[in-house]
Write a structure and sequence with these properties.
Helices cover about 15% and strands about 50% of the residues. By secondary structure, it is an alpha+beta fold. It has a single domain, classed as Lipocalin (Beta Barrel). The chain has an 8-stranded antiparallel barrel with strand order 1-2-3-4-5-6-7-8. A hairpin with an 8-residue loop joins strand 3 and strand 4. The N and C termini lie far apart (about 50 Å).
Length: about 120
């Protein structure tokens, strides 16, 4: 009888752990290589995630702010060459992030970033 209870407890613990894993999946924080080769750092800032270029012609510029979790984020992105703000989103899968900026949700540009 104890063996059955132990197996049940282990199975239950495993299932609870597996259900919790998505809550920690695909964090946006960290360093990313942009599609054009610069390094961008994403870090917590208040209740959001701020994106700042670390290398390249526009090093030091803030280029966005996102909110979200579990690999799906929304917010604003800023084109560093013009300073214009766009509606933005990011989706992360493993070491790849698809970063999208849109004007009026019609004209969109998507970039693929890689985690460093």
């Amino acid at each position: 009888m104890n063996r059955i209870k132990t197996c049940t407890a282990i199975t239950t613990a495993f299932l609870l752990f597996m259900m919790a894993v998505p809550a920690f999946a695909d964090p946006i924080e960290g360093s990313w290589k942009t599609q054009s080769g610069e390094t961008a750092a994403i870090a917590k800032c208040g209740g959001s995630y701020c994106i700042k270029l670390k290398t390249g012609k526009y090093a030091g510029k803030s280029i966005g702010k996102m909110n979200g979790a579990n690999g799906k984020y929304k917010g604003t992105v800023i084109k560093p060459s013009t300073g214009k703000k766009y509606s933005g989103s990011a989706s992360i899968s493993g070491t790849t992030m698809k970063m999208k900026g849109c004007v009026a949700l019609v004209l969109c540009e998507t970039q693929t970033w890689k985690r460093l």
